[in-house]
Amino acid sequence: NAGVTQTPKFQVLKTGQSMTLQCAQDMNHNSMYWYRQDPGMGLRLIYYSASEGTTDKGEVPNGYNVSRLNKREFSLRLESAAPSQTSVYFCASTPDTDTQYFGPGTRLTVL
Amino acid sequence: DQQVKQNSPSLSVQEGRISILNCDYTNSMFDYFLWYKKYPAEGPTFLISISSIKDKNEDGRFTVFLNKSAKHLSLHIVPSQPGDSAVYFCAASAFGAGSYQLTFGKGTKLSVIP
User: Fold this and answer.
1) Would you tell me which of A3, A62, A103, B6 could form a disulfide with A91, CB atoms 3.0–4.6 Å apart?
2) Is there a contact between A5 and A21 (Cβ–Cβ < 8 Å)?
3) Which residue among A31, A42, A49 sits closest to B100, beta carbon to beta carbon?
4) Measured between alpha carbons, how far is residue A17 from residues A20, A35, A67, B33 in Å?
């Protein structure tokens, strides 16, 4: 039981490049979330998915898109990366309770 | 505006003493509160939680207190150990749009000095 996994662990992009961050969970959880964490800030919600086939915007959705591919997988896409998107990205899931379980994170640098 | 505030960015405590981390919130709709612990280069891990209908929850060395009238909660760690050195995030939960939503504070970096 791997819990929540994220790939890649690290990524460096140039401004304007695109990429997709992958997240998968093997706990049969319905809800999944994408957060970003910046220095001196808490975790801010980008997008979430309450169930397979649904997605909704969080606090900071601009510049991102998401896909809930199936119950296990929830991906985050940057279509045209900007330096302001340099951050650490965390994926989380929950079995329809308040407690969310987090992946190890993806550290993204946009030059 | 910040709905969940952790006003102390950092805290240093001697090993064996008590660590007290504080958190304030503004939204009365929050009905569940959680503490997460985060080590560098790792994801946050769930530590302890409390429902809004309780005022205390204890799990080993960790106790969370909730003062609903003051919209304040605190995490007590007794005794503190060097392995407790990490960033602690307070989070508040509300249910909306089909899922539970967490709002996080900015975190408090705890350093436990041997």
Assistant:
1) A103
2) no
3) A31
4) 11, 20, 19, 39
Classified as helix, coil or strand, B84 is helix
Contact between A30 and A51 (Cβ < 8 Å): yes
| Mutation site for B-interface testing, chosen from A100, A101, A106, A107 by largest number of B Cβ within 10 Å | A100
Question: How does pLDDT run across B31-56, given as a tens digit for each residue?
Answer: 999 999 999 999 999 999 999 999 99
Give the pLDDT score at B2: 84
Contact A99 B105 (CB under 8 A): no
Number of residues in chain B: 114
Cis peptide before B79 (omega within 30 of 0): yes
pLDDT digits 0-9 by tens, B50-80: 999 999 999 999 999 999 999 999 999 999 9
d(CA A57, CA A64): 10
- From chain A, the residues in CB contact with B34 under 8 A are 98-99
Comparing alpha-carbon positions, the chain B residue that sits nearest to A103 is B43
Q: Averaged over A38-60, what is the pLDDT?
A: 92
User: What is chain A's mean pLDDT, rounded?
Assistant: 94
pLDDT(B81) > 90: yes
| Percentage of chain A lying above the pLDDT 90 cut | 87
Task: Check if the beta carbon of residue B25 is closer than 8 Å to that of residue B7.
Answer: no
DSSP assignment letter at A30: S
d(CA B68, CA A102): 27
